[in-house]
Design goal:
By secondary structure, the protein is an all-alpha fold. The protein is built from 18 helices and no strands.
Amino acid sequence: GDERPADVAPSIAARRAVEAVWRMESARIVGALARYTRDFALAEDVAQEALAEALVGWAAAGIPDHPVAWLLSVGRRRAIDAFRRRAAADERYALLARELDEFTPGADLLFDPDAIDDDVLALIFTACHPLLPKESRIALTLRVVGGLTTDEIAKAFLVPVSTVQARITRAKKTLAAARVPFAVPTVAARAERLGSVLSVVYLIFTEGSSASGGKDWMRNELAQEARRLARVLTQLVPEPEAFGLLALLELTSARFPARIDENGNAVLLEHQDRSRWDPSAIVRGRAALAKVSDSGLGLGPYGLQAAIAECHAVASSVAGTDWARIVLLYEALGEIAPLHNPPAIAVMDAVRAAFRDVPAVAVFDTAFFRAL
């Protein structure tokens, strides 16, 4: 009986270390391996193989001093092995295996500081490629960029683990079949592709802020991951609409502490204790929105929604809210991003009704609250 704790402890420590490294560095690890192999699907596969090997190796030999370099080194060896296995069927893989083996010194060049940002950005654009269906883009982004496990993604979206695994597998096969290059899009293509990336981050946040299913009304961890991804995007792609999205997520999440009561039920905007709103998130959101305004390019769809959220964030009460500005912002939003879904149309009707008769706050129904 005394031996079991000693045997188990290293395994637990190894698992925790592997999970922590993957959570923090997954984008850099997969990105570096994708640059190295020129094959996104293979990079993700060998990264997972390296993680599996770490669970065993770190438990036996201890956690290495440089865990990321350790994982990259193992991933590199697994990639070369994979190319050698494929060489029998295709000479191109034999050539790649020789090139990687002979001309790349090792994992030291994989984690090139000058290439990290491009690797991560290329990874984000690849995972969010418009060729992939929405569900696959979300799963792949959370897996390779966010560092969530398939089990965590499945729990977040209330679907079986096998469903998430299938989405990721199909996504990688689609990217491979279409020969999508692992690269940052050209400047000309970046604007169009950025829309797909921002949409994925927004959808992740939406699921976190207003869960589509399950007993929990909100999933803060998922919303927090979306905010983290939005911050990464503004650093890598400092475009106005990226800042607009970040502003929207910050200003919306500022109200999270007051949105749920002690019984886990939703608290409508009119009843929220505004003293519980997060002032630091409001400051961050307004700063991001200011960057959009400073660009001189006008507000896009996310920027307009952020401006609406700002009106609520700075108001001392429902009655003290600048409804005239909100109506104008919603009308502008309807012009550049027409509203087709019933909840969004309900929001528009609610805002107009509220502006006509501010005391009649009964118009703030659940659909309105969820969109806010």
